Amino acid sequence: MQSEVIVEKRYRVLRVIATLFRVLGIIGGVLVVLAAIGICLTLVLGASVITPWETPRPWWGRPSILPGIFLLVRSALGSVSLALVLVVSAIQALVLYSIGELIHLFLALEENTRAIAAALRQPRT
C-alpha cells in the first residue's frame, strides 16, 4: 500500500491571477454571446424601422440609384466589421481563459513534481 504525500500549496498570488484570467475569459465570452444575440435581434427586429431615405430626383425627373448603392455598401461594410469585431472578441475571451488554464496547469505540474520528489525521499518499508 502506498502512502500519499501531502504537499503544501504554494504560489497563492499566481493562483489568484490564474483564476482572475479564467473569470475574465468567462465574462468576455458571455458578453460576446450577449452582443451577438443583441445584434441579431436588432438586425431582425429593427429592419422594419429602417427605411431608405427619399431618393433625390435630378432635374430630368428620374430617380437616382446612387443613394441605394451607398446604403448597400454601407450596410455590407457595417456587417463585415461587426462580424470581425465579434470574432476577435470571442478569440480574446478564449485566450484569456486559456492563459488562466495554462497557469493552473503549470502550478499542478510543479505541485505533482514536488509530491513525487517528497515520495522518493521517504524511506521504503
Per the principal axes of the C-alpha atoms, what is the gross shape? rod-shaped
Q: Major beta sheet, specifics?
A: none
* Spans of at least 5 consecutive residues with low confidence: none
Secondary structure tally, helices = 2
**Measured on Cα atoms, how large is the radius of gyration?**
29 Å
Query: Which structural class do you get from the secondary structure elements?
Result: mainly alpha
- Report the portion of residues in β strands: under 5%
Compute the separation of the termini in Å: 10 Å
Number of strands: 0
Order of helices and strands: HH
Helical content stands at over 70%
Task: Describe the structure in your own words.
- The chain has 125 residues and is mainly α.
- It has a domain at 18-40 and 68-125.
- The chain contains two helices and no strands.
- The chain has helices at residues 12-45, 66-121.
- Helix 1 packs antiparallel against helix 2 (66-121).
- The radius of gyration is 29 Å and the shape is rod-shaped.
- The N and C termini lie close together (10 Å).
- 6% of the residues are buried.
- The model has no long low-confidence stretch (mean pLDDT 82).
In brief:
The chain has helices at residues 12-45, 66-121.
Key features of this structure:
mainly alpha, 0% strand, 125 residues, 2 helices
Question: What's the structural blueprint in terms of helices and strands?
Answer:
Elements: H1 12-45, H2 66-121
Helix pairs in contact: 1-2
